[in-house]
Amino acid sequence: RARLTVPGLRKMKAEGRRIVSVTAYDAGFARTVDAAGLDFVLVGDSLGMVCQGHDSTLPVTVADIAYHVACVARGLSSALLVADLPFQADATPERALDASTRFLQAGAAMVKLEGAGNKLDVIRFLSEREIPVCAHLGLTPQSVLRLGGYKVQGREQAAAERLAADARAVADAGADMLVLECVPSALAKRITDDIAIPTIGIGAGPACDGQILVLHDLLGLNSGHRRPRFVKDFLAEGGSIEGALRAYADAVRDGSFPGPEHGYQ
Ligand code: KIV
Ligand code: NA
């Protein structure tokens, strides 16, 4: 397999080929995810919760992400690597440029950041400097203090309209991809139909151009937290870690995951 590129992601959307992704935090898992044929890997700031044991993503630093990006990059040969900008690393365009440059020099091909609003300037600043950007809307875990918890977003009409407008705005600002987390399936479909860049859902229903899950969730390793409804443990049917990743990829590509029971109305 040739290495997937940023234009390759957009081509997959245009051709109706589903994009499959999972998080990874180290070289061993990255190698297995790559062997299972997934399209991209995210070094998410979820590592604060699943690796570091914090109860939010807020404590994660640029140095933490840079370390894990370097580890994961050594394990990948075909999948594209995306790195999360951690809490406040995207507070100004200049800070975001510094952190993103570190991540790209460590092997990432794209950075991800949460929100629209004042982040539109950051997206524009990075993409104008040849840094591919993945936006992230809906439930944005770095907003947990203001949101008061991890809740489905865009359920009321006004909030749905705002989210749809934000999706268009991040695409117009130069984002190359958009993660939609915990939004009603119908709204995710509307946004996916409305913009040219691929949408990647997590708790956003089956109509997105691709799906992402946290690796630990997919393997049933989420003890200590209530399992969200969009999570499926693929280890039982997969029989092994690589088998679980292949079962997940097959299910996303044939449209059987996520099912209606994994989405929000
Ligand atoms: O940090 C993360 O793992 C993420 C994904 C869940 C999209 O942002
Ligand atoms: Na994240």
TrEMBL record:
Superkingdom: Bacteria
Entry note: cofactor: Binds 1 Mg(2+) ion per subunit.
> Could you say which cofactors this protein requires?
Mg(2+)
Q: Which InterPro entries match?
A: Pantoate_hydroxy_MeTrfase, Pyrv/PenolPyrv_kinase-like_dom, Pyrv_kinase-like_dom_sf
User: What does this gene product do?
Assistant: Catalyzes the reversible reaction in which hydroxymethyl group from 5,10-methylenetetrahydrofolate is transferred onto alpha-ketoisovalerate to form ketopantoate.
The residues the record assigns to binding 3-methyl-2-oxobutanoate are 45-46, 84, 112
Record field: catalytic activity:
(6R)-5,10-methylene-5,6,7,8-tetrahydrofolate + 3-methyl-2-oxobutanoate + H2O = 2-dehydropantoate + (6S)-5,6,7,8-tetrahydrofolate
* Residues reported in the UniProt entry to bind Mg(2+): 45, 84, 114
A Pfam family reported for this protein in Swiss-Prot or TrEMBL? Pantoate_transf
Its Gene Ontology biological processes?
Answer: pantothenate biosynthetic process
**HAMAP family (alphabetical):** PanB (MF_00156)
NCBIfam families (alphabetical): panB (TIGR00222), PRK00311.1 (NF001452)
Swiss-Prot/TrEMBL keywords: Cytoplasm, Magnesium, Metal-binding, Pantothenate biosynthesis, Transferase
Picking any one GO molecular function of the record gives: 3-methyl-2-oxobutanoate hydroxymethyltransferase activity
Tell me if Metal-binding is a UniProt keyword of this record: yes
Q: Where in the cell is it found?
A: Cytoplasm
Active site (UniProt): 181
Q: What name is this protein filed under? A: 3-methyl-2-oxobutanoate hydroxymethyltransferase
Q: Which PANTHER family match?
A: 3-METHYL-2-OXOBUTANOATE HYDROXYMETHYLTRANSFERASE (PTHR20881:SF0)
Q: Which GO terms describe its cellular component?
A: cytoplasm
Q: Which family does it belong to?
A: Belongs to the PanB family.
**Enzyme Commission number, as recorded:** 2.1.2.11
Q: In which pathway does it act?
A: Cofactor biosynthesis; (R)-pantothenate biosynthesis; (R)-pantoate from 3-methyl-2-oxobutanoate: step 1/2
